[in-house]
Design brief:
There is one protein chain. By secondary structure, the chain is of the alpha/beta class. Helix content is about 25%, strand content about 25%. The chain contains six helices and eight strands; from the N terminus they run αββαβααβαβαβββ. The protein has a six-stranded mixed β-sheet with strand order 3-4-5-8-7-6. Strands 1-2 form a two-stranded antiparallel sheet. It starts with 15 loop residues before the first helix and ends with a strand.
Length: about 170
């Protein structure tokens, strides 16, 4: 195919592989793991390979690792509602930790089986010193979670904090 014939991801919504690849493919996305770099790239930890987000997600899934997204304010705002939650699911995302959510997107995450949790008031990834290079674990009470329940998150650097189940 010629590049001019690629069109847009949105024009090919019927193909889940294309749409999964298009998730996080925005050229203006800012990943703090790549200081000063914009676009759909990230780092595979521990290899430190810089690759497309889609390729890194597939690598983690092949390795058997579930993924989390650490996000800022109003996570999900402006996204295409039908694929905004399905795309991360297809990339192996299990949890999103955000400062806040767009209301409908938060519900769509739950519908897809992705757990939306929120930093406590006054806490952010920056205030907690989170870089994205850590491994995280959460105490999920065997799935018996309630809205607004506090959940403990711990990372391999010894940082422990609570998030609010949304």
């Amino acid at each position: 195919m010629e590049p001019k014939d690629f069109n847009t991801y949105g024009a090919r919504r019927g193909n889940d592989e294309i749409m999964a690849r298009g998730t996080f493919a925005n050229i203006r996305i800012k990943n703090k793991m790549l200081s000063g770099v914009e676009g759909p790239h990230t780092i595979h930890v521990p290899s430190n390979d810089k690759l497309a987000i889609y390729d890194v997600a597939n690598k983690y899934m092949t390795e058997g690792h579930g993924l989390i997204i650490i996000a800022g304010k109003e996570y999900g705002t402006g996204s295409s509602r039908d694929w905004a939650a399905k795309g991360p699911l297809l990339q192996g995302v299990k949890v999103v930790i955000a400062e806040s959510y767009e209301r409908i997107h938060r519900s769509n995450l739950v519908g897809m089986g992705i757990l939306p949790v929120q930093f406590k008031e006054g806490e952010t990834a920056d205030t907690l010193g989170l870089t994205g290079f850590e491994r995280y674990s959460m105490k999920l009470e065997n799935g018996n979670l309630k809205v607004n329940q506090l959940i403990t998150v711990t990372n391999d650097n010894g940082v422990s904090f609570e998030v609010v189940c949304r």
